Amino acid sequence: TITRRHTRCGKPNCGCHADPPRMHGPYYQWTRKINGKTVTRRLTEHEANLYAEWINNDRQLRALITQMRDIAAEATELITRHDTKAAEV
């Protein structure tokens, strides 16, 4: 996932601790599980936009593959029924 965050630093006199605060950022982060471990990478705004597009493309591709598998399962069922009826005749 891609997240956009604003942060506070550890300097007590910094504007991020003012009222109202002037936070640092925005910072973009990409988080993913790799081999069961969470991996986080800081991104530029441009990289975050690219990653978001790639993530969306991946989701669309996975949805298409799921549809293809469903259609193949339905086709297999129809062919099996047709072959069974043809064998009975």
Question: What features would you describe in this structure?
Answer:
With 89 residues, this protein is an alpha+beta fold. The chain folds into 2 domains: 1-43, no CATH class; 44-89. The chain has 1 helix and 3 strands, in the order E-E-E-H. The chain has a 3-stranded antiparallel beta sheet with strand order 1-2-3, with helices on one face. A hairpin with a 2-residue loop joins strand 2 (24-34) and strand 3 (37-43). The longest helix has 44 residues, at 45-88. The radius of gyration is 25 Å and the shape is rod-shaped. The mean pLDDT is 92.
When the domains are counted, the total is 2
Mean pLDDT across residues: 92
Distance between the termini: 56 Å
Strand content: 25-35%
Largest sheet: 3 strands, antiparallel
> Which parts are unreliable, with pLDDT below 50 for 5 consecutive residues or more?
none
Main sheet: strand order? 1-2-3
- Number of DSSP-assigned strands: 3
Rounded Rg: 25 Å
Helix % is 40-55%
Summarize the structure.
With 89 residues, this protein is an alpha+beta fold. It has one helix at residues 45-88; strands spanning 2-7, 24-34, 37-43.
